[in-house]
């Protein structure tokens, strides 16, 4: 079935589950099918019954955002159903006002159980908001950076000091994915002032970012290889994977090394450094959130000056 056919099927099924009384008393109740008729849906949405019929038959293929919004309201769709409707119609799902920084308890628990893997969690703007001790031990303690410095795009495109190096091909893929993610974020969060400010500043200070932004480059995160130059244990090459948390636009970045390799052994040694960083942070920071062990994660909410 084509996407347009799937849209029509979904609309028909959603229409069938709405009680006819939602559109007011019909002229004749005898012999009618359950659910709203196209005429009744037209009354609720202000659209023509003919157009709605063509939508369900797949003959009208490009409904506008305004049409989709009216349909979602009339059909009383849930948030997930509304998102599905927009995606079926080839439109970006309805946006929310601001990039969320909330990390669900399930993600925090996951971090706490990945003691042997350096893991950092970023929001849709690529602000690093949560990390575990081994992440800090491997790439440097993010708590020592200003809020703006904990944004991956700002850190990379403005040439801030970093322990990580790339080959030209690795760097090109990484940059394309970052820029594509930020462009997607502006679609999902069009009224987020901090996101707009970040992008404006990056375009102003980074010729490289500005060129990629204007090119409308497309990119996605795949399993990549990074070389980390650690001041105590020397260089180690690790794999890097980026995972997206459904429903909250978080990016979980994890570094790993194949078992039995020298890099894997060095990561185990870094666990000791990670524990030391956590101990220092515990002496300086407020108590961890209720129910979360102090050693599970590091968390620094970003401020508006990024």
UniProtKB/TrEMBL annotation:
InterPro entries xrefs: Cro/C1-type_HTH (IPR001387), Lambda_DNA-bd_dom_sf (IPR010982), MLTR_LBD (IPR041413)
GO function terms (MF aspect): DNA binding
Pfam families in alphabetical order: HTH_31 (PF13560), MLTR_LBD (PF17765)
Gene3D superfamilies: 3.30.450.180, lambda repressor-like DNA-binding domains
Domain of life per record: Bacteria
HTH cro/C1-type domain ranges (all copies): 33-82
Region of interest: Disordered: 283-306
CDD domains for this protein: HTH_XRE
Listed Low complexity bias regions: 283-296
PANTHER family (alphabetical): BLL4672 PROTEIN, BLL4672 PROTEIN-RELATED
Protein name: XRE family transcriptional regulator
Species: Streptomyces corynorhini
Classification of source organism: Bacteria, Bacillati, Actinomycetota, Actinomycetes, Kitasatosporales
């Amino acid at each position: 079935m084509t996407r347009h056919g799937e849209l029509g099927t979904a609309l028909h099924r959603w229409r069938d589950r709405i009680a006819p009384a939602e559109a007011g008393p019909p002229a004749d109740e005898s012999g009618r099918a359950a659910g709203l008729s196209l005429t009744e849906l037209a009354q609720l949405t202000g659209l023509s019954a003919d157009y709605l019929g063509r939508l369900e038959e797949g003959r009208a293929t490009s409904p506008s955002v305004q049409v989709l919004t009216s349909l979602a309201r009339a059909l009383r769709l849930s948030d997930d159903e509304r998102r599905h409707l927009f995606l079926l119609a080839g439109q970006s799902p309805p946006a929310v006002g601001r990039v969320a920084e909330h990390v669900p308890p399930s993600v925090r628990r996951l971090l706490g159980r990945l003691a042997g893997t350096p893991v950092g969690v970023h929001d849709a703007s690529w602000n690093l908001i949560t990390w575990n001790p081994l992440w800090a031990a491997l790439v440097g303690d993010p708590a020592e950076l200003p809020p703006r410095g904990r944004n991956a795009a700002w850190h990379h495109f403005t040439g801030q000091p970093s322990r990580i190096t790339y080959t030209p091909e690795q760097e090109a893929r990484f940059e394309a994915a970052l820029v594509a993610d930020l462009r997607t974020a502006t679609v999902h969060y069009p009224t987020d002032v901090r996101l707009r400010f970040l992008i404006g500043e990056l375009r102003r200070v980074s010729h490289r970012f500005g060129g990629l932004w204007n090119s409308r480059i497309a990119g996605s995160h795949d399993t990549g290889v990074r070389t980390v130059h650690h001041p105590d244990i020397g260089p180690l090459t690790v794999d890097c994977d980026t995972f997206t948390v459904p429903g909250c636009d978080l990016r979980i970045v994890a570094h790993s090394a194949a078992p039995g390799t020298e890099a894997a052994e060095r990561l185990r040694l870094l666990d000791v450094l990670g524990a030391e960083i956590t101990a220092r942070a515990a002496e300086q920071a407020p108590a961890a959130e209720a129910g979360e062990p102090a050693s599970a994660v590091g968390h620094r909410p970003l401020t508006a000056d990024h």
